[in-house]
Amino acid sequence: xxxxxxxxxxxxxxxxxxxxxxxxxxxxxxxxxxxxxxxxxxxxxxxxxxxxxxxxxxxxxxxxxxxxxxxxxxxxxxxxxxxxxxxxxxxxxxxxxxxxxxxxxxxxxxxxxxxxxxxxxxxxxxxxxxxxxxxxxxxxxxxxxxxxxxxxxxxxxxxxxxxxxxxxxxxxxxxxxxxxxxxxxxxxxxxxxxxxxxxxxxxxxxxxxxxxxxxxxxxxxxx
Length: 223
Ligand code: G3P
Fold this sequence. Notes:
Order of helices and strands: EHEHEHEHEHEHHEHEHH
Number of domains: 1
CATH class: Alpha Beta
CATH superfamily: Aldolase class I
Number of helices: 10
Helix content: 25-40%
Largest sheet: 8 strands, parallel, barrel
Low-confidence stretches: none
Radius of gyration: 16 Å
CATH topology: TIM Barrel
Strand content: 15-25%
Bound molecules: SN-glycerol-3-phosphate
Shape: globular
CATH architecture: Alpha-Beta Barrel
Distance between the termini: 19 Å
């Protein structure tokens, strides 16, 4: 089962890619409190550069099910691992996968030794993807993504349901929650609902002070 985690998804925000993104990640690394709770999901083209430059664990935002060899234009999991990624998101609401493609991508990711975080929009979908035995399922109601209202306070029943359904179907799988996570109160609420942590993007990446925002989220993880 995946341990406590604050996974910051840089998405493809303009200031979160390339050289600017590396400086952002360096500031987040300085804000990290050394409890090994923080990881960063970064754009594919930045994985190798960021993994080489940073101590924080680097996740991909997606990998394909295609294997190395006769495959063109795919994000191959073994290549992503060789680039330095330790894990990957899969089936994010902004990069959804059909069931067969998710099965293939998850198989490829695990085969490459990557930790996996499969995203799901609600409890039943979370229980379904948990049967693939990822390290985490991230419950993220799409309508709350990028908004000002946190899933852990606006829709606690969705999180509570996902935690219970995943525990019933695949007890070894940890649950994260994401969408609108902004501060320590949101993180504390998520933990009280039984999650291992949070998946966050704009609350950190688009904050006036991303490092301070991350520090505040980490404070909500408890000791
Ligand atoms: O991957 C996390 C993301 O979907 C949540 O976005 O901006 O609501 O934290 P945000």
